[in-house]
Write a structure and sequence with these properties.
The complex is a heterotetramer of chains A (384), B (425), C (158) and D (169). Chain A is an alpha+beta fold. Helices cover 49% and strands 13% of the residues of chain A. In chain A, helix 4 runs antiparallel to helix 5 (90-105). The longest helix of chain A has 30 residues, at 111-140. Chain B has helices at residues 2-10, 18-21, 24-56, 72-82, 93-109, 128-149, 153-184, 196-205, 217-232, 244-247, 257-282, 297-324, 332-353, 355-384, 390-422. The radius of gyration of chain B is 23 Å and the shape is globular. The N and C termini of chain B lie far apart (58 Å). Chain D has 169 residues and is an all-alpha fold. Chain D has two domains: 1-109, Four Helix Bundle (Hemerythrin (Met), subunit A), CATH 1.20.120.1200; 129-169. Helices cover 77% and strands 0% of the residues of chain D. Chain D is built from eight helices and no strands. Chain D has helices at residues 7-26, 30-50, 54-78, 81-86, 94-113, 115-118, 131-142, 144-165. The termini of chain D are far apart. Classes of the chains: A alpha+beta (384), B mainly alpha (425), C alpha/beta (158), D mainly alpha (169). Chains in contact: A-B, A-C, A-D, B-D. Chain A binds chain C through residues 1, 3-7, 59-60, 63, 65, 67-69, 71-72, 103-104, 106, 228, 230-234, 244, 246, 251-252, 315-318, 320, 327, 329, 331, 333, 341-342, 344, 346, 350-351, 353-354, 383-384, and chain C through 18-19, 21, 23, 45-49, 51, 53-54, 65, 67, 71, 74, 76, 78, 96-102, 105, 109, 120-130, 133-134, 136, 138, 140.
C-alpha cells in the first residue's frame, strides 16, 4: 500500500546520522507501553529541548472492531459489548445504547427504570471521575489521592455488584428498562454512600485544590479556548472548563434528567486546573442528582413492553448522552432485521483526544502527561 | 602484643575523634560501626517508608514477610541480589559498571565527618562541612554517568534533569550553609569553623541552636536548606529524575538487580547524609533539646532517660501487636518473632538505662532522633505533594531560594556585626 | 431553515425526518457547499460525527453522513450523501477542524477517500493493512494474515 | 601527629594524575576524557590535602569535580558521540601543541632541578586547623582588591554569557 508506514515519514524518526544538537528537534516516542498514557496510547512528540513543537497520536492498539461486531449480533446481544468500550463508565455506555435502540423501537422505559438508570449512571459518573482524579494526580506526582479515590470508588462498585453481580462491565440496563428490580436495601446503600462520599470530595479537594504545587502544575497548562473546543468537537468537562455551559443532560434531556435540579459547573480559562475543578463540581452535582432520584424513586414496573425478538422498522437514529467524558453518541441503522445494519459509536474520548495536539503545543514534556491525564481518555473507547 | 593493646587502649582516654587522634584501629572500628549502622538505617528506612506511606494512603503496606512485613527489606535485598544483572547491548560497559559505585561511594564517604557525638565521629576535619558538600556533589557524576552510559533516551533525560537540578540547588544550599557557618564565628575570638564538631560546639557555647539564632534568620536559612536538601536527594516533590509517569524511572531505568539496589542504597544514605548536615548546622547536632533552658542536673538525668524510654516504647508497641496477632497456629511463628523482636528492643532499652551506657549513647540517640524526624518528613512530603515541573523547579531554585539565601546571608552578617558593635562594644 | 436550503438547492437536497430526528439527503456535488452554509449561516458549529454506511447492493454503495449540532439553536441535523465505491468526497476539515480523525476513521473502515484532507491515512488499523473492515463484504473473522505474519511473526491472530 | 604526606602517597597520586591526564587527551570518546579529567582533578585535590591545604582541596572538589565537570559532561553528552569517535584524534595543530608541551615540561624540569635556588626559603608547614582561617584573612585582608576584581570579572562573564545565549531579553 502506498501509505505504508507513512505515519512516521514526515517526523524523521529514523535519522541516526543526524546529530542531536544540530537537529534542534528531538523526536521522542511515548508509549504505547508508558505508565502515563493511560493504556496503549502512543504519542510521537517533536521536542525542542523540553518544549513540545507538536505531537502525533498513534492509536488503534486496542481496536477490537466493536462496530463490526455490532453488525453481527442481535440488538440484545450487542448490549454487553458496549460496556467494553469505556470500561470505567460502562453503565453510561449501556444507557446510551439502550436509549438509542428504544428510540428505534419507539418504546420508553417506565419511570422507575428511568430513575434507577439515573442513579446508576450518576454513580458511574462519580466512579469515572474518581478514577480520573486518582490517575491524573498520580501522573502529576501526587500518589495519595489515587488510594483515596479507589477506596471510595470501591463503595460504588459494591453497590453495582449487589445490584447486578458485576462491578466494572455491569451490563446493568436492558433495552426497554431493567432486568433486575433493585435489591432490598438498595436505597439505603445509596444514601449511605452519598453521606459517606460528600466529605470525601472535600478530602480530595483538601489535598489538591490549594496545594501550591498542584496549582502550579495545572494552572495555565493545556489551555484550550472555547472556539477551539467547538471547532474540534470537544465535549464534556473539557468543553465546560473552557466556559461553554453545555451539558446534554440540560440541553437535550434524555432519561428523565429534566426532573432533576442540578447545576452545570463551568470554568473560565480552559486550563487543566479548571478542568479539575469542573470535574470536582460534577461529582458534587452527581451526588445531588442521585439524592433527588433516591428521594423520588417511584414504584412501578421496570420493563416496558418490548418484543422478545426485536425487529425495529427500517430507519436510522442518532442518540447521544452526556457520558463522563463527553458526548457519547450511537448511530444505529436498522434494516428491519434482528441485527443492526450498522452501529456507529461516537466516542467522546476519540474526538477529545484530537485536541491533545492543540493543547500541548508550546508546553513542556511534563505537561503532556498532565494534559493526557486531564483529557480523561479511555483507550478502550478511543480504539473500540 | 602489649604495644598493640596499648595502642588500642590509648585512644580510650582521648577526647578526640579517632581520626583526629590518629588512632587507626579505632578509626577502622568507627568506620565499621558507621557502615553497619547506616546499612541498618537504610533497611529500616525502606521498611518504614513503605509502612508509613501505606498508612497515609489507607493501605497496609508489606504484611506477609515476617510480622507486619518486618523482614520485607531483607527479602527484597535477597531478591535483588539474585536477579539477573542486565546491561543494555549498546551501553558503555565500563561507565555503566562504575556509575553505581561512584554514587554509593559518594553517599557513604560523607559519613566520615558526620558527628554523632563530641567524639563519635570517624574524624573531625577542619573543612568538615565543605568536605560533606563536596563529596555529596560527586554523586551527581555517578548519576550523569549512569544516565549516559545506558545509551537510552529516558535515562539520559533523567540524568540531565537530576544533574541540572542538583547543581542548581547546591548553590542555594551552599548559601544557607554559609549563613550558619557565619554564626559559628560569634565568639570572643571571632573565628568561625567549618568543622562539623566545631559547629555543634559553637551552638553549645552560644546556648542556642542556630535555627533560633537571630530569629527568623536562622529559621529561613534552615528552611532554604530543608527545601534544597530534598531537591538535592531527588526526592518527592523534586523527584523529576525518576518521575515514573514521565521518564519511567529516570537515570536508573536500565539498571537491574544488584546495581539498581546500589542506587537505592545511595539514595537513602544521601538522604540521611543531608539530614545530618541539617541537624548539625541548625538543630544542635547531638545536643539534647533545651540545653540552655533546662540545664540543671535533674533535667540532665530526665533527658538521659529518653533513649531507654524510646526503645521500651517500641518494645511495648511490638508486644501490643504481638498480642493482637490472630490466634491461629499458622501465625504462631509471626507472633513469636514479633514478641522476640520486642524483647530485643526492650533489652536495648534496659541497657540504655545504665548510666555509664546512657551517657555515652545519648548523644548518638539525640542525633539519630533528629535525623529520623527529617526522614519522616521525607516520607510525608512524598505522600502529600505532587511533582514540580522542571522549569518550575529551576525557577524555585534560582529565583526564590537563591535570592532568599543571599538575603539571609547578608542580613545574618549585618545583624552579627551590629550585635557585636551595639550590645558588646 | 430547511425551506431556505430547499429553495436554493432545489432537487439536490431532500429533507426527511425519522423518529423525530431531522436529516437531509444531499447530492454528492452539493456537499462542500451545503456544509459550508450549514456551518457559517445556520450556526451548525459542532461536527458531532462523520461516518458512513455500506450498502453493497446499491449502485451508489456508500452513505456518508455528517451529524451536526448547533449550540446556538440546540438542534441536531444529519446530512447524508450517497457515493459510489472508489469515489472520493471533499474533506470537511477546512470547515470543522475536528473532522480530521473522523474522516480518517471513515477512510480506515470504508476506504472512502476525502479530497483535501491534510493527513489521509489509516488511524485505528496499522498502516499497510489490507482491506476496510466495516464494508459488508469484509467478513467478521477475516483479517490481513499477511500483515500479521510479517509484523507479529505469528501465523494468524485468531 | 604522624605525617600523612608520605612520599608513597605523593607518587601514587601523581601517577594517577599522570595516567588521568594522558587518558584525557588520548580517549576518543569525549565522555571518557571528561571522566578521566575528573579523576585527575580528584587526585590533585588529594595532593592539596597533603600540602596541608584542605580548604583548597575542598573547593577543588566542589567547584571542579562537582560543578564544572558536571556541566562539561552535560554538554558533551548531548553531542553525538558516534561522530566524534569517527573523527581523527589529531588535528593540524598537534606539532605546535607538542612544542608548547615540551617547552612547558622543560621549564618544569628546570624549576625542579634548581628549585632550591629559585625558592630559597622552605615553605613553612601551616597547621592544618588554621588553614581555612588563614585563607580567609588573606583573601579578605591582604588581597581584598584582587579578590573583588576577580569576582567582578566573573560577573561580567556571566552577564556576557546570558546576553549571548538569550535570543531576546
Amino acid at each position: 500500500m502506498a501509505d505504508q508506514n507513512s505515519s512516521l515519514s514526515h517526523l524523521d524518526l529514523e535519522t541516526p546520522e543526524k546529530p542531536f544538537l544540530d537537529a534542534n528537534e528531538l523526536v521522542i516516542n511515548m508509549g504505547p507501553q508508558h505508565p502515563a498514557t493511560h493504556g496503549v496510547l502512543r504519542v510521537i512528540l517533536r521536542l525542542d529541548g523540553e518544549k513540545v513543537l507538536g505531537l502525533e497520536c498513534v492509536i488503534g492498539y486496542l481496536h477490537r472492531g466493536v462496530e463490526k461486531i455490532g453488525e453481527h449480533r442481535t440488538y440484545t446481544m450487542f448490549n454487553p459489548y458496549v460496556d467494553r468500550m469505556d470500561y470505567v463508565a460502562a453503565v453510561s455506555n449501556g444507557l446510551g445504547y439502550c436509549e438509542t435502540v428504544e428510540k428505534l423501537l419507539n418504546v420508553e422505559a417506565p419511570p422507575r427504570a428511568q430513575y434507577v438508570r439515573v442513579i446508576l449512571t450518576e454513580l458511574n459518573r462519580i466512579a469515572s471521575h474518581q478514577l480520573w482524579l486518582g490517575t491524573h494526580a498520580l501522573d502529576i506526582g501526587a500518589i495519595t489521592p489515587l488510594f483515596y479515590t479507589f477506596r471510595d470508588r470501591e463503595e460504588i462498585l459494591k453497590i453495582y455488584e449487589k445490584y447486578c453481580g458485576a462491578r466494572l462491565t455491569t451490563h446493568a440496563f436492558r433495552i426497554g428498562g431493567l432486568q433486575y428490580e433493585t435489591y432490598a436495601g438498595f436505597e439505603k446503600d445509596v444514601t449511605n454512600f452519598l453521606d459517606f462520599f460528600r466529605p470525601k470530595i472535600d478530602e480530595y479537594e483538601e489535598l489538591l485544590t490549594t496545594n501550591r504545587i498542584w496549582v502550579e502544575r495545572t494552572k495555565n497548562v493545556g489551555n484550550i479556548s472555547a472556539q477551539d473546543c467547538i471547532a474540534l468537537g470537544v465535549t464534556g468537562p473539557v468543553l465546560r472548563a473552557s466556559g461553554v455551559k453545555w451539558d446534554l443532560r440540560k440541553a437535550q434531556p434524555y432519561a428523565n434528567y429534566k426532573n432533576f435540579d442540578f447545576d452545570i459547573p463551568i470554568g473560565q480559562n480552559g486550563d487543566t486546573y479548571d478542568r479539575y475543578l469542573v470535574r470536582m463540581g460534577e461529582m458534587r452535582q452527581s451526588v445531588r442528582i442521585v439524592q433527588q432520584a433516591i428521594n423520588g424513586l417511584p414504584e412501578g414496573p421496570i420493563m416496558a413492553k418490548v418484543p422478545k425478538v426485536m425487529k425495529p422498522a427500517v430507519g436510522e437514529v442518532y442518540h447521544s448522552i452526556e457520558a463522563p467524558k463527553g458526548e457519547l453518541g450511537y448511530f444505529i441503522v436498522s434494516d428491519g432485521s434482528t441485527q443492526p445494519y450498522r452501529v456507529r459509536v461516537r466516542p467522546p474520548s476519540f474526538v477529545n483526544l484530537q485536541a491533545l495536539d492543540v493543547m500541548c503545543r508550546g508546553q513542556l514534556v511534563a505537561d503532556v502527561i498532565a494534559v493526557i491525564g486531564t483529557l480523561d481518555i479511555v483507550l478502550g473507547e478511543v480504539d473500540r | 602484643m602489649g604495644q598493640i593493646i596499648q595502642y588500642i587502649q590509648s585512644y580510650l582516654d582521648s577526647d578526640l575523634t579517632p581520626g583526629a587522634a590518629g588512632n587507626m584501629f579505632w578509626a577502622l572500628v568507627y568506620i565499621m560501626l558507621v557502615f553497619v549502622g547506616l546499612s541498618v538505617a537504610v533497611i529500616a528506612m525502606n521498611w518504614l517508608e513503605r509502612k508509613i506511606l501505606a498508612h497515609m494512603q489507607v493501605r497496609l503496606g508489606p504484611m506477609r514477610v515476617g510480622p507486619h512485613g518486618l523482614l520485607q527489606p531483607i527479602a527484597d535485598a535477597i531478591k535483588l541480589l539474585l536477579k539477573e544483572d542486565i546491561m543494555p547491548a549498546e551501553a558503555d560497559g565500563l561507565i555503566f559498571w562504575v556509575a553505581p559505585f561512584v554514587v554509593v561511594l559518594a553517599a557513604f564517604t560523607v559519613f566520615v565527618v558526620v558527628p554523632f557525638g563530641p567524639t563519635h565521629a570517624i574524624t573531625d576535619m577542619n573543612i568538615g562541612i565543605l568536605f560533606m558538600l563536596g563529596v555529596s556533589s560527586l554523586s551527581v557524576l555517578g548519576i550523569v554517568m549512569a544516565g549516559w552510559a545506558s545509551n537510552s533516551h529516558y535515562p539520559l533525560i533523567g540524568a540531565l534533569r537530576s544533574s541540572a537540578q542538583m547543581v542548581s540547588y547546591e548553590v542555594a544550599m551552599g548559601l544557607a550553609v554559609v549563613s550558619a557557618i557565619l554564626m559559628t564565628s560569634l565568639n570572643a575570638e571571632g573565628t568561625g569553623t567549618l568543622s562539623m564538631i566545631g559547629i555543634v560546639q559553637a551552638q553549645q557555647a552560644q546556648h542556642e541552636w542556630f535555627i533560633f539564632k537571630f530569629f527568623p534568620l536562622g529559621l529561613i536559612a534552615f528552611f532554604i536548606f530543608a527545601v534544597a536538601m530534598v531537591a538535592e536527594t531527588n526526592r518527592a516533590p523534586f523527584d523529576l529524575a525518576e518521575a515514573e509517569s514521565e521518564l519511567t524511572a529516570g537515570f536508573h531505568t536500565e539498571y537491574s538487580g544488584f546495581r539498581w539496589s546500589l542506587f537505592f542504597l545511595a539514595e537513602y544514605s544521601a538522604m540521611i547524609a543531608v539530614s545530618s548536615i541539617a541537624v548539625t548546622l541548625w538543630l544542635g547536632g547531638w545536643l539534647r533539646p533545651f540545653p540552655n533552658l533546662l540545664s540543671n542536673s535533674t533535667w540532665d538525668l530526665v533527658f538521659s532517660l529518653f533513649p531507654g524510654i524510646t526503645f521500651l516504647f517500641f518494645a511495648a508497641i511490638c508486644f501490643y501487636n504481638a498480642a493482637r496477632m490472630p490466634k491461629h497456629p499458622l501465625f504462631r511463628i509471626q507472633t513469636v518473632g514479633l514478641a522476640g523482636f520486642g524483647i530485643v528492643l526492650g533489652l536495648i532499652g534496659v541497657i540504655l538505662f545504665i548510666p555509664a551506657v546512657s551517657i555515652r549513647a545519648q548523644d548518638i540517640f539525640w542525633f539519630a532522633a533528629k535525623v529520623a524526624g527529617f526522614m519522616y518528613m521525607y516520607i510525608w512530603y512524598r505522600g502529600t505533594f505532587p511533582r514540580y515541573r522542571f522549569d518550575q523547579l529551576m525557577q524555585m531554585g534560582w529565583k526564590v531560594l537563591l535570592p532568599m539565601g543571599l538575603g539571609v546571608l547578608v542580613l545574618t552578617a549585618s545583624v552579627a556585626l551590629l550585635q557585636e558593635k551595639l550590645w558588646h562594644p | 431553515m430547511v425551506a431556505k436550503l430547499r429553495n436554493s438547492y432545489g432537487s439536490g437536497m431532500e429533507p426527511l425526518t425519522y423518529a423525530g430526528q431531522n436529516y437531509m439527503v444531499v447530492d454528492r456535488t452539493l456537499i462542500p457547499e451545503i456544509l459550508q452554509v450549514l456551518r457559517n449561516q445556520e450556526q451548525f458549529d459542532y461536527c458531532v460525527d462523520i461516518t458512513a454506511v455500506h450498502y453493497p447492493k446499491r449502485e451508489k454503495q456508500f452513505d456518508v453522513l455528517w451529524i451536526l449540532y448547533s449550540y446556538a439553536r440546540n438542534e441536531r441535523i444529519r446530512v447524508t450523501t450517497q457515493i459510489r465505491d472508489g469515489e472520493s468526497i471533499p474533506s470537511s476539515v477546512p470547515i470543522w477542524t475536528g473532522a480530521n480523525w473522523l474522516e480518517r476513521e471513515v477512510y480506515d473502515m470504508f476506504g472512502i477517500k476525502f479530497d483535501g484532507h491534510p493527513d489521509m491515512k489509516r488511524i485505528l488499523l496499522p498502516d499497510g493493512w489490507k482491506g476496510h473492515p466495516l464494508r459488508k463484504d469484509y467478513g467478521i473473522l477475516q483479517q490481513d494474515n499477511e500483515w500479521v505474519q510479517i509484523n507479529l511473526g505469528i501465523e494468524s491472530g485468531q | 601527629m604522624a605525617p600523612v604526606a608520605t612520599p608513597f602517597f605523593f607518587y601514587l597520586l601523581s601517577g594517577i594524575m599522570l595516567i588521568g591526564g594522558i587518558l584525557v587527551i588520548t580517549r576518543k570518546n569525549p565522555v571518557h576524557s571528561a571522566l578521566a579529567l575528573i579523576v585527575t582533578l580528584l587526585a590533585q585535590a588529594s595532593i592539596y590535602l597533603m600540602l596541608y591545604a584542605p580548604f583548597v582541596a575542598g573547593v577543588q572538589i566542589i567547584l571542579y569535580a562537582g560543578g564544572i565537570m558536571v556541566l562539561f559532561l552535560f554538554v558533551i553528552m548531548l553531542v553525538s558521540i558516534d561522530r566524534s569517535v569517527k573523527e581523527r584524534q589529531f588535528n593540524s595543530q598537534w606539532i605546535v601543541g607538542m612544542i608548547a608541551a615540551t617547552a612547558l615540561g622543560g621549564l618544569f624540569i628546570a624549576v625542579f632541578m634548581k628549585g632550591k635556588n629559585i625558592f630559597p626559603e622552605h615553605a613553612l608547614p601551616v597547621i592544618e586547623n588554621d588553614n581555612t582561617q588563614k585563607v580567609a584573612t588573606m583573601l579578605y585582608g591582604q588581597y581584598m582588591f584582587a579578590f573583588e576584581i576577580a569576582s567582578l570579572l566573573l560577573l561580567v562573564a556571566i552577564i556576557g554569557a546570558v546576553v549571548m545565549a538569550k535570543k531576546r531579553i
